[in-house]
Amino acid sequence: MDEAAPEADGRPSPDKPSPDKPSPDTASPDKPGPNKPGEAAPPPEKQLSACRLALTEEIAIAPSIPDIRGPGACGGGDLVRLEAIVLPDKRKVAVKPAAILRCTMASAIADWVRTDMVPLATSLGSTITDLDNFDSFECRGRNRVVGAMLSEHGKANALDVRALKLANGQSIGLTDRTISRDVRERVLHSVCSRFSTVLGPGSDWYHEDHIHLDLAQRRNDYRICQWNVWDPLPQIAPLLPAERPEEAPPREVAAKPEGKSEGKSEAKSEGAKDEADDQESAKPAAPVDKPAAHAGKSKPTTKKRR
Q1: Which letter does DSSP use for residue 15 in this model?
Q2: Which helix H or strand E contains 264, and what residues bound it?
Q3: Which domain holds residue 109?
Q4: Cβ atoms of residues 187 and 115 within 8 Å
Q5: Beta carbons of 129 and 165 less than 8 angstroms apart
Q6: Does the reported pTM lie above 0.85?
Q7: What is the pLDDT of residues 248-280, one digit of tens each?
Q8: Rounded CA gap, 173 and 132, in Å?
Protein backbone atom coordinates (compact mmCIF):
# COMPACT_ATOMS: atom_id res chain seq x y z
CA MET A 1 0.00 0.00 0.00
CA ASP A 2 1.49 3.29 -1.13
CA GLU A 3 1.92 6.05 1.36
CA ALA A 4 -0.38 9.01 0.86
CA ALA A 5 1.28 12.31 -0.27
CA PRO A 6 1.35 14.92 2.41
CA GLU A 7 -1.27 17.58 2.03
CA ALA A 8 -0.12 21.03 1.00
CA ASP A 9 -0.44 23.54 3.77
CA GLY A 10 -0.15 26.59 1.52
CA ARG A 11 3.62 26.96 1.94
CA PRO A 12 5.96 26.28 -0.96
CA SER A 13 8.07 23.24 -0.83
CA PRO A 14 11.72 23.91 -0.16
CA ASP A 15 12.63 21.95 -3.31
CA LYS A 16 10.19 23.62 -5.72
CA PRO A 17 10.12 27.31 -6.61
CA SER A 18 6.95 29.22 -6.10
CA PRO A 19 5.11 30.10 -9.32
CA ASP A 20 4.63 33.66 -8.05
CA LYS A 21 8.32 34.24 -7.23
CA PRO A 22 10.92 33.67 -9.95
CA SER A 23 13.97 31.66 -9.29
CA PRO A 24 17.21 33.57 -8.70
CA ASP A 25 18.57 31.87 -11.80
CA THR A 26 15.68 33.09 -14.00
CA ALA A 27 16.48 36.20 -16.07
CA SER A 28 14.18 39.15 -15.66
CA PRO A 29 13.28 41.38 -18.61
CA ASP A 30 15.11 44.35 -17.03
CA LYS A 31 18.14 42.47 -15.71
CA PRO A 32 20.30 40.20 -17.87
CA GLY A 33 20.72 36.67 -16.71
CA PRO A 34 23.91 34.67 -16.47
CA ASN A 35 23.54 33.38 -20.04
CA LYS A 36 22.47 36.75 -21.60
CA PRO A 37 25.29 39.18 -22.50
CA GLY A 38 24.94 42.70 -21.16
CA GLU A 39 24.71 45.80 -23.40
CA ALA A 40 28.02 47.57 -24.38
CA ALA A 41 28.95 50.37 -22.05
CA PRO A 42 28.88 53.85 -23.63
CA PRO A 43 32.32 55.12 -24.67
CA PRO A 44 33.93 57.53 -22.24
CA GLU A 45 33.57 61.20 -23.08
CA LYS A 46 36.52 62.64 -25.01
CA GLN A 47 38.81 64.78 -22.92
CA LEU A 48 38.98 68.36 -24.17
CA SER A 49 42.45 69.62 -25.04
CA ALA A 50 44.04 72.59 -23.34
CA CYS A 51 43.66 74.51 -26.58
CA ARG A 52 39.96 73.70 -26.79
CA LEU A 53 39.43 74.83 -23.22
CA ALA A 54 41.26 78.10 -23.88
CA LEU A 55 39.57 78.89 -27.21
CA THR A 56 36.34 80.17 -25.71
CA GLU A 57 33.52 82.10 -27.34
CA GLU A 58 35.05 85.29 -25.99
CA ILE A 59 37.96 84.74 -28.40
CA ALA A 60 36.46 83.01 -31.43
CA ILE A 61 33.34 81.34 -32.74
CA ALA A 62 34.93 77.97 -33.45
CA PRO A 63 32.74 74.92 -32.75
CA SER A 64 34.48 71.56 -32.54
CA ILE A 65 34.00 69.07 -35.36
CA PRO A 66 34.69 65.31 -35.52
CA ASP A 67 38.19 64.11 -36.30
CA ILE A 68 39.06 63.57 -39.95
CA ARG A 69 40.97 60.39 -40.81
CA GLY A 70 42.33 59.73 -44.30
CA PRO A 71 42.72 59.07 -47.05
CA GLY A 72 46.36 58.43 -46.33
CA ALA A 73 47.77 60.75 -43.68
CA CYS A 74 45.20 63.48 -44.36
CA GLY A 75 43.15 64.92 -41.55
CA GLY A 76 43.80 65.11 -37.86
CA GLY A 77 42.20 65.52 -34.47
CA ASP A 78 41.11 68.37 -32.25
CA LEU A 79 39.56 70.18 -35.23
CA VAL A 80 37.38 73.27 -35.20
CA ARG A 81 35.44 75.28 -37.74
CA LEU A 82 36.66 78.85 -37.38
CA GLU A 83 33.68 81.02 -38.27
CA ALA A 84 34.57 84.36 -36.66
CA ILE A 85 37.11 86.03 -34.43
CA VAL A 86 35.75 87.99 -31.47
CA LEU A 87 37.61 91.22 -30.80
CA PRO A 88 38.21 92.64 -27.32
CA ASP A 89 35.35 95.12 -27.85
CA LYS A 90 33.00 92.19 -28.71
CA ARG A 91 32.86 92.99 -32.42
CA LYS A 92 33.35 90.02 -34.72
CA VAL A 93 35.61 89.49 -37.70
CA ALA A 94 33.93 87.00 -40.01
CA VAL A 95 36.12 84.33 -41.61
CA LYS A 96 34.76 83.90 -45.14
CA PRO A 97 34.36 81.09 -45.85
CA ALA A 98 34.68 79.36 -42.48
CA ALA A 99 38.02 77.58 -42.10
CA ILE A 100 38.54 73.96 -41.00
CA LEU A 101 41.66 74.03 -38.82
CA ARG A 102 43.34 72.35 -35.93
CA CYS A 103 42.58 74.10 -32.69
CA THR A 104 46.16 75.32 -32.30
CA MET A 105 46.15 76.91 -35.77
CA ALA A 106 42.76 78.51 -35.23
CA SER A 107 43.94 79.92 -31.91
CA ALA A 108 47.08 81.35 -33.57
CA ILE A 109 44.99 83.05 -36.28
CA ALA A 110 42.64 84.54 -33.70
CA ASP A 111 45.51 85.87 -31.60
CA TRP A 112 47.20 87.35 -34.70
CA VAL A 113 44.08 89.25 -35.74
CA ARG A 114 43.20 90.43 -32.24
CA THR A 115 46.73 91.51 -31.26
CA ASP A 116 48.42 92.71 -34.47
CA MET A 117 45.84 93.41 -37.17
CA VAL A 118 43.39 95.42 -35.05
CA PRO A 119 46.01 98.12 -34.27
CA LEU A 120 46.96 98.17 -37.96
CA ALA A 121 43.35 98.82 -38.98
CA THR A 122 43.06 101.48 -36.29
CA SER A 123 46.07 103.30 -37.74
CA LEU A 124 44.21 103.36 -41.06
CA GLY A 125 41.16 104.90 -39.39
CA SER A 126 38.89 101.85 -39.50
CA THR A 127 38.20 98.39 -38.08
CA ILE A 128 38.42 94.88 -39.51
CA THR A 129 35.17 93.20 -40.55
CA ASP A 130 36.19 90.20 -42.71
CA LEU A 131 39.14 87.88 -43.22
CA ASP A 132 39.36 86.54 -46.79
CA ASN A 133 40.07 82.81 -46.45
CA PHE A 134 41.59 81.54 -49.72
CA ASP A 135 42.08 77.94 -48.52
CA SER A 136 42.20 75.93 -45.29
CA PHE A 137 41.84 72.12 -44.96
CA GLU A 138 42.24 70.25 -48.23
CA CYS A 139 43.60 66.74 -48.63
CA ARG A 140 46.30 67.31 -51.25
CA GLY A 141 50.02 67.46 -51.92
CA ARG A 142 52.07 70.60 -51.78
CA ASN A 143 51.02 73.15 -54.41
CA ARG A 144 48.51 70.56 -55.67
CA VAL A 145 51.29 68.67 -57.42
CA VAL A 146 50.49 64.99 -57.92
CA GLY A 147 52.89 62.81 -55.93
CA ALA A 148 54.27 65.69 -53.87
CA MET A 149 54.64 65.56 -50.08
CA LEU A 150 51.48 66.07 -48.07
CA SER A 151 50.73 69.75 -47.66
CA GLU A 152 50.07 71.29 -44.26
CA HIS A 153 46.64 72.04 -45.70
CA GLY A 154 46.08 68.27 -45.73
CA LYS A 155 46.75 68.25 -41.98
CA ALA A 156 44.37 71.17 -41.29
CA ASN A 157 47.43 73.07 -40.11
CA ALA A 158 47.54 75.90 -42.68
CA LEU A 159 45.53 78.90 -43.83
CA ASP A 160 45.86 80.97 -47.01
CA VAL A 161 44.89 84.61 -46.48
CA ARG A 162 44.22 86.93 -49.39
CA ALA A 163 42.94 90.13 -47.79
CA LEU A 164 41.55 91.88 -44.72
CA LYS A 165 38.41 93.93 -45.29
CA LEU A 166 37.72 97.08 -43.28
CA ALA A 167 34.50 98.70 -42.15
CA ASN A 168 35.12 101.76 -44.35
CA GLY A 169 34.98 99.61 -47.47
CA GLN A 170 38.74 99.42 -47.94
CA SER A 171 40.38 96.07 -48.55
CA ILE A 172 43.97 95.39 -47.51
CA GLY A 173 45.17 92.99 -50.18
CA LEU A 174 48.29 91.45 -48.70
CA THR A 175 49.90 91.06 -52.14
CA ASP A 176 48.32 94.17 -53.72
CA ARG A 177 51.10 96.49 -54.89
CA THR A 178 48.74 99.47 -54.80
CA ILE A 179 48.60 99.11 -51.00
CA SER A 180 51.19 101.10 -49.07
CA ARG A 181 54.49 99.29 -48.80
CA ASP A 182 54.68 100.21 -45.11
CA VAL A 183 51.34 98.48 -44.41
CA ARG A 184 52.40 95.29 -46.18
CA GLU A 185 55.74 95.24 -44.41
CA ARG A 186 54.01 95.54 -41.05
CA VAL A 187 51.92 92.48 -41.92
CA LEU A 188 55.07 90.67 -43.07
CA HIS A 189 56.93 91.23 -39.80
CA SER A 190 53.84 90.26 -37.82
CA VAL A 191 53.17 86.88 -39.47
CA CYS A 192 56.84 85.89 -39.68
CA SER A 193 57.16 86.29 -35.92
CA ARG A 194 54.11 84.10 -35.23
CA PHE A 195 54.00 81.30 -37.82
CA SER A 196 56.67 78.76 -38.72
CA THR A 197 56.00 79.07 -42.47
CA VAL A 198 55.13 82.21 -44.44
CA LEU A 199 55.03 82.04 -48.24
CA GLY A 200 54.11 84.92 -50.51
CA PRO A 201 55.22 86.65 -53.72
CA GLY A 202 58.77 85.75 -54.63
CA SER A 203 58.70 82.35 -52.90
CA ASP A 204 57.36 80.51 -55.96
CA TRP A 205 54.72 80.98 -58.64
CA TYR A 206 52.04 79.38 -56.46
CA HIS A 207 51.81 82.22 -53.92
CA GLU A 208 51.72 85.38 -56.00
CA ASP A 209 48.14 86.35 -55.03
CA HIS A 210 47.90 85.23 -51.38
CA ILE A 211 49.91 84.53 -48.22
CA HIS A 212 50.33 80.99 -46.89
CA LEU A 213 50.55 80.58 -43.11
CA ASP A 214 51.13 77.35 -41.17
CA LEU A 215 52.55 75.90 -37.95
CA ALA A 216 54.67 73.10 -39.41
CA GLN A 217 57.07 71.58 -36.90
CA ARG A 218 60.66 71.27 -38.09
CA ARG A 219 63.94 70.28 -36.57
CA ASN A 220 65.46 72.94 -34.31
CA ASP A 221 62.32 75.06 -34.76
CA TYR A 222 63.47 76.05 -38.22
CA ARG A 223 61.27 78.77 -39.77
CA ILE A 224 60.61 79.83 -43.35
CA CYS A 225 59.69 83.43 -44.18
CA GLN A 226 59.65 84.00 -47.94
CA TRP A 227 57.62 87.02 -48.97
CA ASN A 228 58.98 89.82 -51.14
CA VAL A 229 57.12 93.07 -50.59
CA TRP A 230 57.34 94.63 -54.05
CA ASP A 231 57.41 98.37 -54.62
CA PRO A 232 54.14 100.00 -55.72
CA LEU A 233 53.63 100.20 -59.47
CA PRO A 234 54.03 103.68 -61.03
CA GLN A 235 50.74 105.42 -61.70
CA ILE A 236 51.93 106.54 -65.15
CA ALA A 237 54.30 104.39 -67.12
CA PRO A 238 57.44 106.32 -68.15
CA LEU A 239 57.64 107.04 -71.87
CA LEU A 240 61.44 107.26 -71.96
CA PRO A 241 64.06 105.28 -70.09
CA ALA A 242 65.47 106.94 -67.02
CA GLU A 243 68.66 108.93 -67.42
CA ARG A 244 71.90 107.20 -66.60
CA PRO A 245 72.99 108.27 -63.09
CA GLU A 246 76.24 110.16 -62.78
CA GLU A 247 77.66 107.71 -60.27
CA ALA A 248 77.20 104.80 -62.68
CA PRO A 249 80.46 103.22 -63.88
CA PRO A 250 81.49 104.06 -67.45
CA ARG A 251 80.34 101.77 -70.19
CA GLU A 252 83.05 99.50 -71.53
CA VAL A 253 83.89 100.07 -75.22
CA ALA A 254 85.51 97.18 -77.03
CA ALA A 255 88.76 98.47 -78.55
CA LYS A 256 89.86 96.92 -81.85
CA PRO A 257 93.48 95.71 -82.09
CA GLU A 258 95.62 98.17 -84.05
CA GLY A 259 97.43 95.58 -86.18
CA LYS A 260 94.25 93.94 -87.37
CA SER A 261 92.54 97.24 -88.11
CA GLU A 262 95.50 98.53 -90.19
CA GLY A 263 95.80 95.28 -92.08
CA LYS A 264 92.12 95.35 -92.91
CA SER A 265 92.30 99.00 -94.10
CA GLU A 266 95.34 98.30 -96.32
CA ALA A 267 93.70 95.25 -97.82
CA LYS A 268 90.59 97.26 -98.45
CA SER A 269 92.48 100.08 -100.20
CA GLU A 270 94.40 97.63 -102.39
CA GLY A 271 91.22 95.87 -103.32
CA ALA A 272 89.59 99.17 -104.25
CA LYS A 273 92.58 100.13 -106.41
CA ASP A 274 92.51 96.81 -108.30
CA GLU A 275 88.82 97.17 -108.88
CA ALA A 276 89.31 100.69 -110.29
CA ASP A 277 92.05 99.42 -112.67
CA ASP A 278 89.78 96.64 -113.89
CA GLN A 279 87.03 99.12 -114.61
CA GLU A 280 89.45 101.37 -116.51
CA SER A 281 90.76 98.53 -118.69
CA ALA A 282 87.24 97.39 -119.45
CA LYS A 283 86.40 100.74 -121.10
CA PRO A 284 86.58 100.78 -124.95
CA ALA A 285 89.56 102.61 -126.42
CA ALA A 286 88.88 106.12 -127.66
CA PRO A 287 88.77 106.39 -131.51
CA VAL A 288 91.78 108.05 -133.22
CA ASP A 289 90.96 111.40 -134.69
CA LYS A 290 91.05 111.34 -138.56
CA PRO A 291 92.48 114.32 -140.50
CA ALA A 292 89.82 116.70 -141.43
CA ALA A 293 88.68 116.84 -145.06
CA HIS A 294 89.78 119.66 -147.35
CA ALA A 295 88.09 122.64 -146.01
CA GLY A 296 87.95 126.06 -147.44
CA LYS A 297 91.17 127.28 -149.20
CA SER A 298 93.55 125.27 -147.20
CA LYS A 299 96.35 123.84 -149.35
CA PRO A 300 96.84 120.13 -149.54
CA THR A 301 99.92 118.88 -147.84
CA THR A 302 102.72 117.99 -150.23
CA LYS A 303 105.80 115.93 -149.67
CA LYS A 304 109.15 117.39 -150.33
CA ARG A 305 111.26 115.69 -152.88
CA ARG A 306 114.62 114.69 -151.84
Answers
A1: T
A2: helix 258-282
A3: 50-226
A4: no
A5: yes
A6: no
A7: 888 776 555 565 555 555 555 555 555 655 555
A8: 9
